[in-house]
Amino acid sequence: MLTECLAIPHVSTGEMLREGVRSGKGVTPKTAAKMHAGILVKDTVVEAMVEDRLARADAAEGFVLDGYPRTLVQAEHWMNWLRGRAVREVVIHLAVDYNVIIARFTGRLECPLCGTPYNVVLRPPKEDSLCDLDGGKLVRREDDREEVIRARLDAYEQQTRPVLNYLRSNGERVVDVDGSNDPPEAVYQKIRQAMENR
Description:
Helix content: 40-55%
Radius of gyration: 17 Å
Order of helices and strands: HEHHHEHEHEEHEH
Largest sheet: 2 strands, parallel
Number of helices: 8
Number of strands: 6
């Protein structure tokens, strides 16, 4: 919703990595195994992917970066990249209770044909296990198993929460938005309001 409003691309490191696994390009089997186990991919691999993606023409006027930076090394690299291009950023921190995260991710489904996301509780398909748009058989991502999600949450606490502290301490604009109980449309409105207030 945010990218549509701003007419800029959504750049998701997770989606880029999953596409690399599907296509067999740019992601080694060892990296794919780490991803499936919920372990963060090497900083240098992700940094190169992000820089390559942001060099495309559609990102020249801005972008929504999703899933990066996730480590202090990546954050330092990213801040240097931004400063070298005089890019002004806003960091949106979506705060969500861990129990809510686990419930959302374990109920997540997607269409392998068009990529439309669903959730068995929050946004179920009209017909069980079939995409509303193209009738494709919905699938669960390999990394949406509870044990993998818990590993990712542990990695967040150890490696990503310090990034938030680093950004705040360096004077970056960090906007906190509670995303625990509202549907995506309401969270989007909260983000827009917070950005307008900043």
